[in-house]
Each structure stands twice: as structure tokens, then as C-alpha cells.
Amino acid sequence: MSTRPILFSGPMVNALLEGRKTQTRRILNRLKGYPALSDFMLSETKGFDWEFRRKDKVWCSFRHEDLLKIMPHLVGDLLYVRERFSAPAINDFIKYNIPPQHWENVALNEYGMHFWADGEPEFGDWEKPKPSIHMPRKLSRITLEVTGVRVERLQDISTPDAIAEGIEEALRPSWHHDRRWKDYSSKAEYLPHPNESFRSLWDSLNKARGFGWDANPWVSVTEFKVHECNVDEFEREAA
Question: Domain of life of the organism in this record (predicted)?
Fold first, then answer.
């Protein structure tokens, strides 16, 4: 079992917190022990199921059961969610005569943090939102416990799985005009069918990179159980 970070946008964080998102699909371009790979495909080599090309152009072939052992996420892994956040503005620290060397501790313990997936702060003075990639492990409030992994073509997604991606509620038309989501630059649309909505979201995030819906790339599918707590807290309670 390993513990690793995973990034989500504001609407997807809300889908996690509301229990609507229990799956995520990511382009399959990395495997454990292989920092970068390309040309992932079904194998034509007898005795193997999959093959891909490493960054150094060397081809590798794997049986299905061996591939599952080097997937980006494995059953039992813990993923701590990184999201956009802010600490109290320095002006508050100055106001209360708090020495600079104690600002970090005060922000974490006494004043707390603001998570921008929750919308605009109702009160207080907060720093400019920090990108989710900068959220430290100790601030994460959501832990995902991986319960299943698999490989599939993007277009093979089923309707129940499209719903499990959390897309339906996350793209309600009203959200397009809600200033809370002004940081969410996706051009995705809420469409009548869950699969169509998921396709719209996927293309808004991946089409420009050459991995759009029509390209039908191979993806890693990660299923998980959501725990609303910090990953270190979860590990302590599970011990």
C-alpha cells in the first residue's frame, strides 16, 4: 500500500464531498517503475496481453495480472486530495501582533484554512488562492481509499460509471454563471445523457493535449471510497 496525492478541481471536490464521485479516469501514460510511456495497446505477442513503449523507445509486454501490479494506483492505496486553498492574509497576523516565525503554525492550528471549493469566504481576509498542486499533505481534508483498478478504452465507459464520475451535478447550467466557480475554466456542458456530459468534461480537459474523446485513449480507472478526513488521521485510526 502506498500514499500519494491526487488533484481535483473545485466542482469535483464537491462531488467527492457529496458522495457523487467514486471513480476517476486518467490517461494511461505512467506505470509504477516506468516514468513515461507511449503507444499503449493490446499485445499481439503470444502469452502476453498488453504492450507499450518506454520513453527510451524500448517495447515492453505484460500479462494482464502483472500489469495490474504496476498501475498508477493499486487496491488499498490511499490518495489524499489536493485542492485550491488559502491561508489567512498576513494582515491578520500583523493585526494580532503575531511574530512572522509563528505565522505558519497559527494558520494551521488557530485560524484554519479556506478551501475554495466551498465558494467565496463569507468573512475574513484570505490570501490569493494557491493552486491545488501546492497543497501540503497535512492540509488535505479528503482521503480516497482505492477499492478497484482496471484498464479500458475511454469510450467504453458505461452510464453508471459516467454518473460515478460525479459529472451530472457538477455541470448544472447555473454553475456556469456562479462566481464561485470563476476559477473553473472548463468549457464542459451539462447534457441530457450522463455519457455525453462526461465526454464534454473529458474533452475540456484533455482534447487540446491530443487525448480527446474521439482519440479514444486507453485510461486507468480508479474506484475508491471517500473518507472526509486527513490521510494521516485515517492511517492513525486504521492502525
Answer: Bacteria
Q: How many helices (H) and strands (E) does the chain have?
A: 8, 10
Nearest alpha-carbon partner for 138 in 28, 230, 208: 230
Name the pLDDT band for 187 (thresholds 50, 70, 90).
Answer: low
Pair type for strands 78-82 and 3-7: parallel
Secondary structure letter of residue 87 according to DSSP: P
Quick one: pLDDT at residue 115?
92
Q: What is the pLDDT of residue 193?
A: 80
pLDDT at position 93: 59
- CATH 3.10.400.10, the chain: domain bounds: 3-28+73-82+140-238
Which CATH fold topology does 3-28+73-82+140-238 show? Answer: Sulfate adenylyltransferase (3.10.400)
8 Å CB contact between 103 and 90: yes
